[in-house]
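Dear H.,

Thanks for agreeing to be a second pair of eyes. The structure we're designing against is below in token form, covering all 280 positions.
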């Protein structure tokens, strides 16, 4: 037997021992793997002595303002342009725990004017009265509303209803300023309770303030009179009027918004006709 045979046998024995040790070590690692698969589990289970912190946790919300209107509905009955605008008021009450800012309001009809300036604040538990001016220029039954806007809170609605009857009716019933300063023609007609035209003669005696005059060039017709409204004259009077002048309403910048004028006639059913004029 040559010397290479013992060496070959020894080499085989050594190779077998190495393979056996690899198998043993591999089996040990496979048994340990389930414990090491989630290396953070032990750390998460270990108490740290500190409460977990909520990331982005919500703060306690502030209580919104709660405003209510008293009353929430106004019934004005039967009105007439021969009586003029109806002045009434509602009370806004903040029954919440935080201040309430009244940013403005919306009205469903131009016949309703809120005679106040927006942007006022009610402290918690505070109230204030707001005047409403309702002009009876829309014939028949009217069911309208005012919606007061409250910042960061629900708006407040007030319902208003009335019925309009008249003996003399203006066309247009709402006199809106035209472009420029040219006069606006307004036709006055004598009508019955049902709104039907009556060919009954009447005469315009005067206008106050003096911002309109009879149009003598208009065709003469029983039961009809025609006026021309002079907006340049209104501007002149408004420039010297004060906020206490109840015929006018003014905007925040001091510009006049509306004017109510009085037309006196010889009609027994309507000796004073109130006309409502609006600036654009």
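And this is the sequence the design step returned. I haven't edited it by hand at all.
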């Amino acid at each position: 037997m040559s010397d290479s045979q013992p060496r070959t046998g020894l080499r085989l024995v050594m190779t077998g021992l190495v393979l056996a040790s690899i198998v043993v070590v591999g089996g040990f690692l496979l048994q340990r793997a389930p414990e090491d698969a989630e290396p953070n589990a032990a750390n998460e289970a270990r108490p740290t002595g500190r409460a977990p912190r909520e990331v982005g946790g919500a703060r306690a919300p502030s209580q919104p303002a709660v405003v209510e209107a008293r009353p929430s509905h106004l019934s004005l009955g039967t009105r007439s342009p021969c009586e003029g605008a109806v002045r009434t008021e509602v009370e806004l009450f903040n029954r919440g725990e935080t201040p309430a800012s009244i940013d403005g309001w919306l009205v469903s009809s131009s016949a309703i004017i809120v005679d106040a300036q927006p942007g006022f604040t009610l402290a918690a538990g505070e109230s204030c009265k707001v005047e409403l001016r309702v002009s009876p220029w829309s014939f028949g039954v009217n069911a309208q509303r005012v919606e007061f806007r409250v910042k960061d809170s629900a708006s407040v609605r007030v319902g208003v209803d009335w019925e309009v009857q008249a003996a003399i009716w203006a066309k247009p019933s709402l006199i809106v300023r035209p472009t420029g300063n040219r006069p606006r023609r307004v036709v006055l007609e004598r009508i019955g309770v049902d709104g039907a035209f009556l060919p009954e003669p009447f005469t315009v005696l005067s206008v106050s303030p003096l911002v309109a005059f009879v149009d003598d060039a208009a065709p003469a017709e029983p039961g009809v009179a025609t006026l021309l409204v002079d907006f340049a004259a209104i501007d002149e009077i408004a420039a010297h009027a004060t906020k206490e002048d109840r015929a006018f309403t003014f905007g925040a910048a001091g510009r006049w918004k509306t004017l109510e004028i009085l037309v006196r006639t010889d009609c027994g059913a309507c000796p004073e006709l109130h006309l409502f004029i609006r600036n654009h």
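Two observations from my side: Residues 1-10, 12-60 have pLDDT under 50 and may be disordered. DSSP finds three helices and 18 strands in the chain.

Warmly,
E.
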